[in-house]
Design a protein that fits this description.
mainly alpha, globular
Length: 193
Amino acid sequence: IISAFTITVFHWTQMEASLIIVYPAIVGVISFLSSAWIVPKCGSLLSVVISSVLGTIGLICMTLSAALLPLFFIIGLGFLASGAFGLVGYLSFISARIDPSKQGELQGTLGACALAGFALGNVGYSGLFYFLEDHKWIVFLIGTIFSFCSLILIGHYYVIIYDSSDFSILNNNDDNDGNGNGIHGESVIGSAN
């Protein structure tokens, strides 16, 4: 979608469109590698919230790029890729709440859902991109809406479900307490308790 968008909307050459993909790849790798510092520092759930904010900002910039400047598209790609550390935070958050004997099942389910989303997203967005004549930016607008809705959900979970006056989550205390309980004593899914 990125290459097709830059070629059809910005009239870039195939080489320019291909080279622009190198930039978010580098930013994404740096973000992913920095997750070893970010996730322990912020905690897993806050890392996911920050990553969602970055992704939403990136998609907003990419949506506005058709009306403004191609520079917004490049900036948006950077924001989108800079949230790669959120994957580590998400896996850390989910894994801490599942019984160790169920970890393989969890990882298999997450992988299957990601693969299904990738397949359906590619077909859906490619088809939508094909049928939109002069308004191809709508593809990124739809992505922005989905990203914003997920940001609201994860933000709600962070702010409402967790007591905002208890800052233990910022100190990465989101591991099991050894008794099958997660943070604030809630039961861990699939635990023997």
